[in-house]
């Protein structure tokens, strides 16, 4: 860099002060003991002041010579290479310290991060598994992963996004198991992202898909370190954006979304039962509203006579066809779910009580929906929550409306035909070149490998 | 043998349980249906083995590539066109049969064209997807529906409506000369393997024909065939069974699940076999579309670098299906099916000739 000597304000310092000088937290401190001089430049708000004192200021006054201090600074491990002024400026704003001794400029990383507290799992809680998830600081998160997966082949590549926030992100993979094609594709796509602002892993995901309208997620967003490790051993790649307590796993196929980490912590039969429940929930949630419409409006003769009479009896007084009833109740339940997500915790209990209990009863009493409809809708709502990953649960919720539409037009045959249609759609989908709905029958280690087959 | 190969064969077998095969077999029940079934099984297995053997020599290629590289242009276009038409008609027959079945048994108030449309929307989607995805789709559908199919078949075979004496009567006719149409109908059950023409691209391993896969196929084939023929007889009696238009549907409707949520077996049966039939139609029409794409150069139908010819073909497919649907009666459809099945030996003959030509040219 610039080697011109300037006694009071070196050339580079002047430049930076010109760029960042409008901020009041920029501090420029010259240090001097007799003939020895050094200067530091930093942003007060992002610097760890204790570390600055310990690492830089105190040694400077204890050193005998400028040369000794320079050599000391140079041997510090948290020194950062810099090549041009732009990256230097970005680094300064992230909490780097610029030191000038004689003609030399040294960049030290002593940033202060206030978001490195590891948080409890909130989205994917489990009974037996680890209870703590990620923090919002990238370095802490990498530390957490390294800690859990002490394999020398684990590669951590940290770089920066090209948006205005200049967030750092890390690509983490096991060099031995990773699918090289996926890795190249991922890096290519990350390079192609040109969005002005990306704030979290979830945000990044939307741009990784490279499609505006996607119904099913092709990358998996998780907050559980154990799930990440589980996928890492299977040769998948993890992308973490700084400032986000979740990480993205690529590639992700349909069955990845149906795995709960508790499956591995329970015993065989218990986890088989929960798996069965989960898939039963999935099918209930997609098929049940449509089957209800098909049976009520098209083929009441399908179910046994007693049941048909019960259903018909409960619908006495309901003034409109079944599909409106179902649509009305489904939208109602969706509103209720959405409301309880957005509301503060203290109020959300009220919402569920008012919405679920009081309105549910009132709707039946006013003959706007049948009793059985309420049961169907509640069952569907509960089944949705059985799906372990939130993203998939949202997709499934949207899918069932499509199937409902198809059934409304074409009846009972429409349920099956539409369902096949969904399977066709999913089977044709790919996540980073991996088929989305491929079934793997091999044992667990082989099945885990993305590039196994 | 790769598991996807079994799927190709088994989907075709199961789809034909409901469609026209049992009706043809039952129509010939006093004319040597049993001997034809035995002979047809051997014929079917022979075709399966020959087809696998032929494609095993050319892993990771499909018939279109083989024809285009090894034979002259006019020959490859003619052969591919012939195959495509056969594939298309096979799918068309299943599609129209199922449209008729749906209006008879499930949605009698719905117009035929609407039923056809409801099936076409999904089938056309299935034609347009990647060939490899079709294999994954098969697997999921088979995993989901196979338990139900086994349940249905077992339920049909083991219940108090099923009278073994009728089966014994049917067995009395074992000493008759085989009938031609029953023979072709039987071998049609085994025809699923010819779809390798399109799907061979994804079978990279050298397929060796060992004893076990052939044994499994024989067992599955014999069980399916036996059920196809004997279950309607056991349930419906021997004497008038040939009068039923859809023998298997009527058979399943005579069975009642006393404690089931759905009392009549018919509905589960219809829906499950509808799913399998859609698979069968998709596989045939996807094949037809790919064969046509292989036959004709695609350069003449490009738009901004996208190949639009599949869209042209699916429009053509749906139009022909629509016209056929409007004009055919159930009886004509049955006659057409029988005629198509009767042409099967010539189809095999031409296939063998094409295989032979490719093999000879490839060796040169």
From TrEMBL, chain A:
Presence of keyword Transmembrane helix: yes
Enumerate the Pfam families for this protein. GerA
Q: Does the keyword Cytoplasm apply?
A: no
The cross-references to InterPro entries, in alphabetical order and at most eight, read: Spore_Ger, UPF0353/GerABKA_families
Question: What keywords does the record list, in alphabetical order?
Answer: Membrane, Transmembrane, Transmembrane helix
- Membrane-crossing ranges are 276-298, 318-336, 368-389, 401-427
Q: Which family does it belong to?
A: Belongs to the GerABKA family.
Q: What is this protein called?
A: Spore germination protein
UniProtKB/TrEMBL annotation, chain B:
Q: Sorted alphabetically, which Pfam families does this protein's record hold?
A: Spore_permease
Tell me the superkingdom of the source: Bacteria
The cross-references to InterPro entries, in alphabetical order and at most eight, read: Spore_GerAB (IPR004761)
Q: Where are the transmembrane segments?
A: 5-26, 32-56, 77-106, 112-129, 136-158, 178-199, 211-231, 265-287, 308-327, 339-358
Q: What is its main location?
A: membrane
How this chain sits in the membrane, per its record, is: Multi-pass membrane protein
Q: What is this protein called?
A: GerAB/ArcD/ProY family transporter
Q: Which UniProt keywords apply?
A: Germination, Membrane, Transmembrane, Transmembrane helix, Transport
Instruction: Report the family membership.
Output: Belongs to the amino acid-polyamine-organocation (APC) superfamily. Spore germination protein (SGP) (TC 2.A.3.9) family.
Entry's localization field: Membrane
